[in-house]
Write a structure and sequence with these properties.
The complex is a heterodimer of chains A (248) and B (323). Chain A has 248 residues and is an alpha/beta fold. Chain A has a single domain, classed as HUPs (Rossmann fold, 3-Layer(aba) Sandwich). Chain A is built from 6 helices and 13 strands. A 9-stranded mixed β-sheet of chain A has the order 9-8-7-10-6-1-4-5-11, with helices on both faces. In chain A, a hairpin with a 2-residue loop joins strand 7 and strand 8. Classes of the chains: A alpha/beta (248), B alpha/beta (323). At the A-B interface, helix 3, helix 4, strand 7, strand 8 and strand 9 of A face helix 3, helix 4, strand 7, strand 9 and strand 10 of B.
């Protein structure tokens, strides 16, 4: 079974981002980057499927040349090889999906594992767009995946509870939080990853026009909430809720 | 082509309130485009939902009543919505940024060769339509424009009031999208978390617990406080990750976004990912033992206290007031 998994290099989610004074983007100097946390669940699941069914895991990233670091991390976890589609442009989800469509047509995987969203752009679109372009079924927000007889049975996190869906492979699955516990890269894994193949392409090589359908015009900070008061005790809290906020 | 098509969402034979917020967004957008608001309902024998949708003064209500739509599948819904967008000459297709909307709308966008905006919090006309949306866990708001003729939008419903019924009832039209059901995707089950409590996204009061509660059993006191005020129960991602609470309760960047009148954050430190899901609440109460917890930076009322003592006391005193 051939499994494709995607890896995005994102700003460290525990750092507060700063916006450039001209509102054209966020400050990148001095910022730490790491693999999008939902992609870690996707990579882990891809490796787990390979461990059960055999085959190959190919990790793909679209981004600047530094994204090789996140791809090496995926290979240190257990991916067999990697492809970087190198670009300094900030692609919209549609362009990401069109680049990945070309990669899928070259690689012909049986299943694709992706994070349910990236924690920087928070769009949650690329996997579903890709599924649509390929005319493949999708199972988003997965917390459980079983692959057997050419189908994947996927437990999904949905509003109001959980849902189970079966998709015939090839198909796309996006990872949610409870799916697994991503493994740490071991030292031997890290050493091995240095020798695993990493191919670099550009959107041009793939013949994809990355012109966006959605243009970002301006970045702003949200309105900040003002910190309120620290109260003495429960009695004061009850009094304020009743007589000041008027919510009881 | 200036109309706005709303894709309705329903559960247990009732319209979800989030759809009414999307109707408000659609009215705002249609005012700018000079078009009409239309609604599409996909389902099987949900006539009562169709009748309710007819009360909001929209131009057309299209009702695709077919067993193929009894259970939600993106593979079946997306082509039907694309067909309805063409039927209604829609310039904007919108739905709630619920798990269904997030799963579904990108496929609709791909079919319509449309750009898509996720989590829109406003629409305006400033030399063309502009949308604002949060990202980076709500720490950044961008203004975006969609360059394609058709635009697909998932709406962050906490930023729009629920539409109230208005005007004469719209006649409900039956609609046949003419789409064959998918052979590669099958619905198996929907396991609903049954609860007497209101839905998190609709509740006026939300009581949320964090990892500081140390166990699932200790969520009992969160539920007691919520029940005293007729509220919903939520949890931080850390509490969900630790297995103390179901994922459906998760509030934050990767869970639900809520904006109730009154929000209690109990034993929640206030990571930015959590704040992303609740800082739009009108009144925020934080109870935490750590006086330096970031949650106190956004709370209106803070109690530096042990939740195990403060919450039962609070529940008891509020119960007396409510009685």
């Amino acid at each position: 079974m051939k499994i494709l998994t995607t890896v995005k290099r994102v700003t460290d989610p525990d750092m507060k981002v700063k916006i450039k004074p001209d509102q054209s983007g966020v400050v990148t100097e001095g910022v730490e980057y790491k693999m999008n946390s939902f992609d870690e669940y996707g990579v882990e699941e891809a490796i787990a499927i390979k461990e059960e069914h055999g085959g190959e895991v190919v990790a793909v990233s679209i981004g600047p040349s530094q994204s090789t670091k996140e791809l090496r991390t995926a290979m240190a976890m257990g991916a067999d090889r990697a492809i970087l589609v190198e670009t300094d442009a900030d692609l919209d989800s549609d362009a990401v999906a069109r680049v990945l469509t070309e990669i899928v047509q070259r690689e012909e995987p049986d299943v694709i594992l992706m994070g349910k969203q990236s924690v920087d752009s928070d769009r949650s679109q690329a996997a579903q767009l890709l599924a649509s372009y390929l005319d493949w079924p999708q199972a988003t927000f997965a917390y459980d995946v079983e692959v057997a007889d050419g189908w994947a049975t996927v437990g999904r996190e949905v509003d109001g509870g959980t849902s189970t869906k079966r998709i015939r492979l090839p198909g796309i699955i996006t990872a949610d939080l409870r799916l697994n516990e991503p493994r740490y890269a071991s030292l031997p894994g890290i050493m091995k990853a240095k020798r695993k193949p990493l191919e670099t392409l550009t959107p041009d090589d793939l013949g994809v026009d990355i012109a966006p359908r959605v243009n970002v015009l301006k970045f702003e900070a949200p309105e900040e909430r003002e910190a309120g008061e620290i109260l003495e005790d429960v009695d004061e809290l009850v009094d304020r809720l009743k007589n000041e906020a008027n919510v009881i | 082509m200036a109309n706005v098509l709303v894709v309705a969402e329903h559960l247990d034979g009732a319209l979800r309130k989030v759809t009414r917020s999307v109707i408000t967004f659609a009215r705002d957008a249609a005012e700018l485009t000079g078009g009409d608001v239309d609604v599409l309902l996909l389902g099987s024998d949900v006539d009562a939902v169709a009748e309710e949708l007819a009360q909001y003064g929209v131009s057309r209500v299209l009702y695709a009543n077919d067993s193929a739509y009894a259970n939600y599948l993106a593979e079946n819904y997306a082509p039907a919505i694309a067909a309805a967008a063409e039927e209604t000459d829609a310039a904007i297709v919108c739905a709630p940024a619920s798990t269904t909307g997030k799963d579904l709308l990108p496929r609709v966008a791909a079919s319509l060769e449309a750009g898509m905006v996720s989590d829109a919090i406003s629409v305006s006309d400033d030399d063309g339509l502009k949308f604002r949306r949060p990202l980076w866990a709500g720490n950044v708001i961008t203004t975006v424009e969609v360059v394609t003729p058709v635009k697909v939008v998932s709406v962050r419903t906490t930023d729009f009031d629920a539409a109230e019924p208005s005007g004469d009832a719209t006649p409900v039209e039956s609609f046949d999208p003419g789409v064959a059901p998918s052979e590669t995707a099958e619905f198996v089950s929907f396991d609903q978390v049954k609860s007497e409590r209101p839905e998190l996204t609709d509740a006026e009061v939300v009581v949320a617990g964090g990892r500081g509660l140390r166990s699932g059993e200790n969520f009992e006191m969160i539920m007691d406080l919520a029940d005293t005020l007729g509220g919903a129960v939520g949890a931080s991602r850390a509490a969900v990750d630790s297995g103390y609470a179901p994922n459906d309760w998760q509030i934050g960047q990767t869970g639900k976004v809520v904006a109730p009148q009154l929000y209690f954050a109990v034993a929640i430190s206030g990571a930015i990912q959590h704040l992303a899901g609740m800082k739009g609440s009108q009144n925020i109460v934080a109870i935490n033992t750590d006086p330096d917890a970031p949650i106190f930076q956004v709370s209106d009322y803070g109690l530096v206290a042990d939740a195990f003592e403060a919450v039962p006391e609070l529940t008891e005193k509020l119960q007396k007031l409510v009685d």
